[in-house]
Amino acid sequence: MLIKTLQQAKRVIKIVVGFTILLAGVVMLVTPGPGWVAIFGGLAILAAEFVWARRLLDHLKHHGGKLRDAVFNSKNSKNPPDSPAESPK
Questions:
Q1: How far apart are CA 46 and CA 35, in angstroms?
Q2: Which tops the pLDDT comparison, 86 or 73?
Q3: 3-class DSSP state for residue 30?
Q4: Torsion-angle region of residue 83: left (phi > 0), alpha (psi -120 to 50) or beta?
Q5: Left if phi > 0, otherwise alpha if psi is -120 to 50, otherwise beta: which for 33?
């Protein structure tokens, strides 16, 4: 009986901590702070308890890489190194 109660208490603590970190990450998207890092951390904690959190985390990992590549490639394509704006005269 005591072991089951301890397991339930650990589960509740994981859930509360996970949602707290997730919420803090969402707030940090509009305020200074590492918002995406906190969101990924909160989802990682929640993924141990919820299937939806695991699926969302996997989805963000997959599409996050594509988004990162698109952002960094678009920054580089604005002023490619061999463009006339940066060539020596």
A1: 16
A2: 73
A3: coil
A4: beta
A5: left
Split at pLDDT 50, 70, 90, the class of 14 is: very high
Domain that holds residue 19: 11-58
How many domains does one find in the chain? 1
- Is residue 30 one of the residues assigned to a domain? yes
How many other CB atoms are there within 10 angstroms of residue 45's CB atom? 21
Would 39 be classed as within a structural domain? yes
Structure tokens at 75: 């920054």
User: Is 21 within the bounds of a domain?
Assistant: yes
End-to-end CA distance of the chain: 81
